[in-house]
Amino acid sequence: MTQQHEKIYREHEPICLQGSEADCLYVLRRGAVAIYVNTDKDKPEIAEVLGKGIRVGVFNTRDAVIGEGGLFLQRRSASLIAQADDTALQHIPVGGNGLQKAMLERASLGLTVCRSLAARLRDLAEVARDVSHLAEAVSRAKCNLAVDLAHLLEQIPPLFPHHPELKHLFEEMEKFPQAQEGKELLHQRRDTSVIIMQALAMRQRSGVLNLKPGDLLCEEGKFGRTVYFVKKGILDVTVGSSIIGRIGHDEIVGEVAVLLKEAPKRIATVRASVPCVLQCIPITEFLELAESKPALMVPIAKRMAMRLEATNRLVSLRSHASRTELDSLAKAPGSCEELFLRLAAQLESYDDAESITSKARAHALEASRLRNEIAQGCLG
C-alpha cells in the first residue's frame, strides 16, 4: 500500500472527483478545499464540476479531516477541489475497509472522524436547513426499513420449518442489497447494545429514564450534554411540526450534539411515541466510552456518512429539479415496499401466518408513506 504523503495543489485543481473510488483520507495542512456535487453526470470532468457543480461546503481549518464519508460508501459522493494556490493535503491511504479497521485500532481516530462528520452535518443544517432535515428522513428511512426487512426474514424461518418451498424464497430475498444492509445494521445495533450495557454496568454515573407517550426528550436548538440509548420503545424525531424519522430499540439518540466541540446544540426535537426506557449517558461518560470502546463509533460514523451523502444530493437536486435523482432517492423505500408485499403474498395462504403477514403489510404501508413523503419533500 502507498505510504501517506503530503501533496500541494493549485487553485481549482481537483483532489478527487465525484463517482471515483474512495481509497484515501485527507488532512488539510493549509489552504482551502471546496465540496461540489453534480447531478447531471455520475462521473463529471473537472470543467463540468466547476461549470455546473453546486458548491455545498468549504474546508479551511488546519488539520480538518476530509473524505471520510466517501470511505464508508466506497466511492466519492462529491468532488473535492482546491480553492487556493499552495493548498496542502496529507494523503492517508485507507482503501476498502481500511478506515473502519483504523478506527477500531485507534480510538482517537474514531472520535476525530465522528466529530468531523458531526461538524459537517451542523454546517449543512445551517446553510440548507430544510434539505438537511429531509436528508435525515431519507437516511433514517433507508436504514430502518432495511432493518425491519432483515428482522422479518430472521423471524420467519423458525415459524415454518416444514415448508421447504419457503426456504428457497427466504434465501433468495436475503441476497437483496436491502436485506444485506439491514442484516449488517441489525448486527451493529445488537453489538452496540452489548458494548454499552456491559460498559455502563461497571460505572455509576449513568441512569435510566422512563418516558410516557408525548414526553419531550430533546428540543431543537437547546444545548445537549447527554446521549441516550433506547432500551425499549419508539421516539419521533421532528423539525417544526414534521416527523422526519423514528428511533427505536438499540439505537443511540443525541450523539451529534455531544460530538460537537463548539455550540453542542440539538439539531431536532425528539419525543416518545410510546412508553420508552432509555439509558442516559452523560457527555464525559460517552467520550470515555468512545476512547475505550472504539467499535461504538463505527456505526455512528457510517450513519452520519449516509446522511451527508443524502444531503449533498438533495442540495444539488433542489437546484436542478432532477426527476431522475428524485426517483433514485425514493428507490430504497419503494424497493423495500415491494419486498414486504411479496413476503405477505407468499405467507398469507399458510396457517398460523396471520400475525407475521400483518407485520409485513404494515412495513409495506410504512415504506409507501416514507416514499411519498420523501418525494413531496424533494419537490417542495
Descriptive overview:
By secondary structure, the chain is α+β, with helices and mostly antiparallel strands. It has helices at residues 46-52, 68-73, 98-105, 107-127, 129-159, 164-173, 177-200, 255-259, 283-292, 297-320, 323-347, 354-379; strands spanning 5-9, 14-16, 24-30, 33-37, 54-59, 65-66, 79-82, 87-93, 207-211, 216-218, 226-232, 235-239, 242-247, 252-253, 269-272, 276-282. The chain has two domains: 5-96, Jelly Rolls; 131-379, Jelly Rolls. The strands form four sheets. A four-stranded antiparallel β-sheet has the order 1-8-3-6. A four-stranded antiparallel β-sheet has the order 2-7-4-5, sandwiched between helices. A four-stranded antiparallel β-sheet has the order 9-16-11-14. Helix 4 crosses helix 9, helix 5 (129-159) packs antiparallel against helix 12 (354-379) and helix 11 (323-347) packs antiparallel against helix 12.
CATH topology of the largest domain: Jelly Rolls
State the domain count.
2
Strand tally is 16
What Rg, in angstroms, do the CA atoms define? 21 Å
Straight-line distance between termini: 46 Å
Strand content is 15-25%
Strand order of the largest sheet: 1-8-3-6
Mean pLDDT: 83
Biggest β-sheet strands, sense, barrel: 4 strands, antiparallel
| Corresponding CATH superfamily of the largest domain | Jelly Rolls
Structural class of the secondary elements?
alpha+beta
> Could you say which overall geometry the principal axes of the C-alpha atoms support?
globular
Given as residue ranges, the uncertain stretches (5+ residues, pLDDT < 50) are none
Report helical residue fraction: 40-55%
SSE order in H/E notation?
EEEEHEEHEEHHHHHEEEEEEHEEHHHH
What's the CATH architecture name of the largest domain? Sandwich
